[in-house]
Amino acid sequence: MKKTLSFKHILLFTSLLLLAITVNAQFHIIPQPVSLKAGKGSFILSNNAVIGVNKETEPIGKYLKDYLNLNYGLQTTVKVFEKIPAKTAIRLNNVWSNAESAYTMNVNPASVSISGSGAGVFYGVQSLIQLLPTDKAAPLKVAACTIADQPRFGWRGLSLDVSRHFFTVDEVKKYIDVMAHYKLNTFHWHLTDDEGWRIQIDKYPRLTEVGARISYYAKRGEFRKLDNLIDDGRDGFYTKDEIKDVIKYAQDRFVTILPEIEMPGHSEAAIFAYPQLGCQDSTGAKHRVRMLDPSEYTFKFMEDVLSEVIALFPNQYIHIGGDEAEMADWLKSPTAVALMKREHLKSEKEVQSYFIKRIERFLLSRNKKLVGWDEILEGGLAESATVMSWQGEAGGIAAARMHHHVVMTPLPYMYFDAPQANEDLEPIGWNPPVTWQMVYNYEPQSKELTNAEAEYILGAQGNIWNEKVPNAQHLQYMVYPRALAVAELTWSPKNEKDPERFGRKMKNQYGLFKLWDFNARLPDIDGVDNVITNKSRFKLTLSYPLKGAKVRYALNGKMPDAHSPAVPFPVNINVPLKDSIGLRTFTTWTLNDQHIRQMASIRRVNIKHAHEKVANLKTSMAYEVFKTRERDIDKLGNEKPTETGETSLIVPVKIATEGFINWVKIKGFIKIGKEADYELTTGFEVSPALFLDEVPVIKPGLNTYVEPQKALLHLKKGIYALSGHYMADKANENQTLIELKVAGGEKLYPKFYLMH
C-alpha cells in the first residue's frame, strides 16, 4: 500500500507540475490574474468575427475592433444586442458586481466571453489582447482558459513630467495607451515646474506666452541657463482643446488624469512670466526665485488658475505639489514675515502649512480634493489632504496613522529617472540604479501599519522626472519594463507575488512592444554575473528570449559597440581561465536599433577544504552582533558583541538605535557530501561579505540585481570554513543570507550543509 500510495502521489505531483508549466508557457498576462485556469483547445479569431456588445459595453467593443484593425488588419464587426447571442464570437457583457473593476473571462474553442461592470470589461479585453499572438502572419489563436480577476488597489499610477521636456499630445496618448494595456488607471500629469508651464490659462496668457518658452528665452540670455537639463529643453504647451482631447482619450481607456499645478516652490516658470508672484527679499539680494510669495495677489492668482484647471479636469483630485519648497526665502520676505506675525505662525514650516490649507479650502469649495507630496505634512497637514509619499515611506506611514489617504511613490523603488542597471552602462539618470526586481518586490502597505491604518493606502505609483529624458523613445526606455512591475504589485494579490514568474512573463511582452513600436528597455542576458571560481576553464552559454536578437561580446575587458561583429544567440563560451576575464556584451534587437550593454568579471581563486571533524559540528551558523558607531568593520578591534546566537539562512533584522549601526559577523562551515560543481550566491538585496576558506567569494555592499555575483566552485567531499559579515538593517529583512545549489540544479536545504 505504501508503494502504491507513494507512486500515486508522484503521478499527481507530476501532473500538477506539468499543468503549471503549461499555464506559465501559454499565459503571459501582466498583471497576474487572481485566478487563471487552463482549458482545452484554442479559439481562433477570424477576419469576419462579430464582437457582440450591449449598450454599456459598445465603446469597449469599438475599442477592441479598432485595436484588431490597427495591429492585425482584421475587419471585425461590432453589433449591439439587448441579449448577446451565445454563438457570437466575442461577447462583452456588462454585469453588476460588488468588486470594482472585476471581470471574468471564458475562452473556449467556440467563443470568448468577457463579463464585468464599469472598467471590468475593458480590463478583460486587455487580458485578451495579451493572449493574442504578436506575429501578424500567424493564425490568431487564443488558448482556452477561465479567468476571474479584480484589482488589489484602486490607485495604480504612473506620472509624466512634461515641464522639463515637453511631450506632444500624440506622445502623451501613446503613454496612456500602454498604461491602459496593463490596467494602470491613474495618469499623474506634472504640468508646471521651474522649467516650463504647459497648460493654457486664459486669464494669465503670459504663463504660456513666456513660461512655456523658457528654453527659447534661455538661449537669448533672458533667463537662467537650464543647467539641470541634458540639452536646452523642449518648449511647448497644451491648449485647452488639446487637454480636453487627452482627457476624453484617457476616459475611453478608463484612465483618470491627475493634474499637478506646482506650488509654493518649483514655480520659477510662473514667476518668470509674472514676477510679482515671486518671493521678495528685503535684504536686496539677487538670486533665483522659485518660491511664491504668500501674498493676496498670489492666492488670487492661484485660485484663478485652479478655477480654469478644475473646469477642464473632471476627476476628484488636484495635485498642488508642495515639495522641496525653499521655505527659508520666506524669512526674508516682508509679506511672509507680516503673515507670520498676523497669523501667529512660529516658523516657515507653518507658513507652508498655512499656504497649503488655504489652497485646500478653495479646492473643497469647488468639490475637489487636494493631493500633495509628503512635505505638506510639515507644519501641520491639511484636514482632507491625500499624501504622496516620495521621500521614502515615513511620510506615508505618518499620514496613514493620522487617517489620511496615501499613495506610495517612495525613493528609490518608484523613481524611474534612475538607471535600470549599472549606471556606467545606462543613460544618465538621477540616483543609484533601480531594477525591475526592486520595483516588483516593493510592498505599499508597510508592516509598521496596523490593518486599519493600512486601509488608508490607496495604492502606488511610478514616477518619472524628465531633466535627462529629451524625447519619447528615451521616456519609454526609462519607464518600461519597470511600469509592468507597478502594474502587478498594485493589481495582483500580495500573496501571489512571484518574481521568477513575473520575469518570464515580462520577457514575453516584447512581442507586444514591437507590435506597438514601443521602445521598452531590453531584458538583460541571464548569467552575465561576476564570478569567483576555482575552475581552470570558464564556460557560459549566452541565450536570449527575443527572436532576432544578436550579441557582440568580448573577453578582454573592452566593450564592443554597434560596429563590432555580431552573432546570433545562443553563444557558447568555453575558454581557459588562468587569472581573470573581463566579459563585455552589447546586445541588439530588431526594434529601433535598441541595445543594452552588460559587463562581468570572472576571477580564478584557490579553495582548500578544512579538516574539522563532522562529529564536533552541529547544524546552522553562529553569529555575533556588534552595536557600534563604527562604519568600518575592520576597525571594530576587540569590541565585545552585544548579542550572540545561532541562525539559519533567514537572518533576523537587527535595527540599531539612531546614531548606531549593527554589524553582524557569521562563522561556520559548509559540509559537502558529494564532489561536484556548486554555485554559491546570496539572497540579500545588498550583498554581505562572504568568505570560503578565507577566500572572498561574495563582495559586500553590492545590489544583487545591479551587479549580480556568484561563486562557481568545484568542491570535493569535506568541510569548508565559512565566514562573513554585513550591516544589519531593514534592507535585507527576511532575506536568505546564503544560497547553495549543485550547478544547474535545485537549491540545497541548509540543514544538510550548514554547520558550526
UniProtKB/TrEMBL annotation:
Gene3D superfamilies: Chitobiase/beta-hexosaminidase domain 2-like (3.30.379.10), Glycosidases (3.20.20.80). Keywords: Glycosidase, Hydrolase. Coiled coil: none annotated. Its EC number is 3.2.1.52. One of its GO terms (biological process) is carbohydrate metabolic process. Residues 28-150 form the Beta-hexosaminidase bacterial type N-terminal domain. It holds the Pfam family Glyco_hydro_20b. Residues 153-493 form the Glycoside hydrolase family 20 catalytic domain. Transmembrane segments: none annotated. GO terms for molecular function: beta-N-acetylhexosaminidase activity. The active site is at residue 324. One of its GO terms (cellular component) is membrane. The keyword Hydrolase applies. It comes from the Bacteria. It is an enzyme of class 3 (hydrolase). It catalyses: Hydrolysis of terminal non-reducing N-acetyl-D-hexosamine residues in N-acetyl-beta-D-hexosaminides. This is beta-N-acetylhexosaminidase.
